[in-house]
């Protein structure tokens, strides 16, 4: 095993910001970038590209309009000609928003694009397709009975993680530099960690959810995945539409702290060594985050109750339309007493208030993004309290409590020559994404974190 | 069958109770769903037990605030 010894930040493929600069300068065209992304996705195929649907006609029309602006001497925006994808629960005008579910096969076409797509395209970006996910977002593996299994680009026999695995894989393979995804309980952070890319889960409510098919409304957020930190930060800025920051990143040294207890239990051997080295380099300060196991329990109750309520009509109509693991979880959620749901929400409120004090002791807290390497597709299990349990429902053990708390989190790959990517999750106080981004920049610049190069196809 | 239960301690669901509760909830699902639903319900019940063990005064926090 090699420690986090300054593996250089990957320079290929180029970043979204560099792509846009080349389009604006006339060095390349949006149409060329768009064709390249579409061809790459097609060549890889659905399981390896992460894409479920390529929007070739729409994308080439949009790219042509970007190129016309450049030809006319106008600026198409900071993402001029940059191809991107979205998880298949963002509305795309004229398409069915499947949310990864067969229950949506006969749904009406979306009348307009999701707000987040509108904003990225207004900044010059070009939507090229939709990406695979666990059915309805209920899972951590992206093994979808209807739309296929998305494979980890670093080992195609292993899961990509989920629920938004397609969005992470599309970025990890260099097919697109950025993806828009969602995060309910770790949906984009777990695959970011397992596929070795950067994933930003913002503070609850910070980015627009209009036109995004809901799953758990009190937890769902829109987020971004990318290979480059500045790309991810730029996407966030665009999606915020100029909203003032709730807080500014403090100057000076950032105080890091590792979360212990719940977040230190069940870590695999392959993760523990590199994580300890990373921790030592950051000063070896540790903190407890009391009641994390209760937060995880509350999150599970909230998800089950809200998810089941949202899909009650489909469950009544024909529960067999759902894939069995999702169906059984939703049906169980439907049987939960309302008092249990309210107790979970009450706990959420309580712990959020308590947490504000935690950040008086440390600026940025960190945990593993997932317990270890991506589990194998043939036997997707992990070890928890000494027992082998399904990864589908448990890979998010370190992300779930943070979702309930509503906090922003950013996943970065640890630098090092590992057989598979290992991700860490950085966490800041609510509304303190500027600090989170500055901390991530510091870790990359110190050589502690780096996005691995895309594996050869 | 009448069930006597210690107050505050939830009885474990069974395949029969799952069938009854699904029927009461208006869900008609084939019987081969029952074991999977039961297994998930037991997991949820464990989560609820964790939650209930933490005695939070209902007036100390609102259940209706969702923002961070």
Topology:
The complex is a heterodimer of chains A (457) and B (68).
Chain A: H1 16-25, H2 30-44, H3 46-49, E1 51-54, H4 56-71, E2 83-87, H5 115-122, E3 126-131, E4 143-144, E5 148-149, E6 151-152, E7 155-159, H6 165-172, E8 178-183, H7 189-195, E9 198-201, E10 221-226, H8 229-240, E11 256-259, H9 269-281, E12 286-287, H10 292-310, H11 312-317, H12 324-334, H13 338-358, E13 364-368, E14 381-384, E15 387-390, H14 391-394, H15 400-405, E16 409-413, E17 423-427, H16 433-445
Parallel strand pairs in A: 2-3, 2-8, 11-12, 11-13
Antiparallel strand pairs in A: 1-3, 4-5, 6-7, 8-10, 9-10, 9-16, 13-17, 14-15, 16-17
Chain B: H1 15-24, H2 34-53
The most extensive contact between chains is: A-B, 47 and 36 residues
Beta-strand percentage range of chain A: 15-25%
Low-confidence stretches of chain A: 1-11
The CATH class of chain A is identified as Alpha Beta
What is the CATH T-level topology of chain A? Amidase signature (AS) enzymes
**E-strand count of chain A:** 17
| Rg result of chain A | 20 Å
What's the gist of this structure?
Chain A is α+β, with helices and mostly antiparallel strands. Chain A is built from 16 helices and 17 strands.
Could you explain the architecture of this structure?
The complex is a heterodimer of chains A (457) and B (68). By secondary structure, chain A is an alpha+beta fold. Chain A has a single domain, classed as Amidase signature (AS) enzymes. Chain A is 38% helix and 16% strand. Chain A has 16 helices and 17 strands. Chain A has helices at residues 16-25, 30-44, 46-49, 56-71, 115-122, 165-172, 189-195, 229-240, 269-281, 292-310, 312-317, 324-334, 338-358, 391-394, 400-405, 433-445; strands spanning 51-54, 83-87, 126-131, 143-144, 148-149, 151-152, 155-159, 178-183, 198-201, 221-226, 256-259, 286-287, 364-368, 381-384, 387-390, 409-413, 423-427. In chain A, strand 2 (83-87), helix 5 (115-122) and strand 3 form a beta-alpha-beta unit. In chain A, helix 2 runs antiparallel to helix 4 (56-71), helix 6 packs parallel to helix 7 and helix 10 packs across helix 12. The longest helix of chain A has 21 residues, at 338-358. Chain A is globular, with a radius of gyration of 20 Å. Chain B is an all-alpha fold and 68 residues long. Chain B has a domain at 15-24 and 32-52. Chain B is built from 2 helices and no strands. Chain B is elongated, with a radius of gyration of 16 Å. The termini of chain B are far apart. The model of chain B has no long low-confidence stretch (mean pLDDT 86). The interface between A and B is large, with 47 and 36 residues.
